[in-house]
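Follow-up to my earlier ticket, as requested here are the two runs.
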Amino acid sequence: HIASSGTQGFHVAYAPEVTEFSGWAAGSGGITVRETHQAMEAVALSGGLLSMSVSGFTADLEPRIATDAVSFVMSAFGKRIL
């Protein structure tokens, strides 16, 4: 709740490079896929999300990474994973 203390809410910026995807060097050393989902679910539960930007999508981005990134965005807006 610190991010939204004294404000109407907050903005989240996400780029696939912050998530460590198996076999993808650009995300090497980032947080895990599960941790990314947990963080995005926490964003949704906070109720403070006003806007979100997603960057880092290029023509050569692997489809599985793009698919996971869309799932992360959906988690931020309230979709829960099993």
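Run two:
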Amino acid sequence: MKKTSHINKKTTLKDIMTLERMGARYPSRLSFSRSMLRAMVREKWRIKTVIFDLDKEGYGSVVYEVTTPKQIYSLLCFSQYLDDKERSDRVIADKWDTAYTLHIGKISKLEFKRLKKNIPLQEAGRNSPKELILSRANKSVRLFEKVVDCLSKGNQPDINDFNKVGYLLRTTAVYGSGKFGLSDFSRTKVVTNFNQPFRAEMLAVYIIREFSIHLVEHIAYNRNPKKAVKIKNKIKQHLGIGNSTGLGMAPFIIKHPKLIHKWIR
């Protein structure tokens, strides 16, 4: 039987390689997030909260511990007050609502102290090869406060708002692969589970999404302990994580033209 391409014979790659058409493509089994989640399910990774130290307004630190068959990782989350006038989603901003790092191993008191001092500084801080990812995110102006208000009154958020906005927190950078002193990918792929591109980044973003839910529920509870509720699972499933940059994908696409060609065809 003769093999045929799903691309119409009259359609050229020039027609497909446009922002509009590429942006409309659905995720596939090759997608970074889906391949990451398959590995987590197949290998039965476990994620637990080992530190939850937030005040009533949601400022402080949270640490999630990820246990895999190969080793343990820690995602550190730092939340701080940020005036609305100072909030910017541009990559050149120097202040953020939240900051994160994915660390190899359990977090010690000494390492926690070092990272608590440096991670909120982002590019201006000092990192080590023990850190795989450096990231930061801002609260959604349209959705974050609205969801907190609903939950604190005992109401569920409008699922249409979730579908329209899509996230509670929006990352403005997710750095990895040797930037700013982080572990280089040539080392990461040997000493960790993350032997494929963007696996560590996807894990970090996945847990940041979970943190965003824990954050709004925590603030809502402290505003009204007697009436506050948590987001129902069927509504929670409509939440993702925002991303305002994606600059790291540019060199990946340039460096791997044959891979992109296979994906498109």
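The only thing I checked on run two: The beta strands are 46-54, 60-67, 72-79, 98-104, 131-139, 167-175, 240-243. Let me know what else you need.
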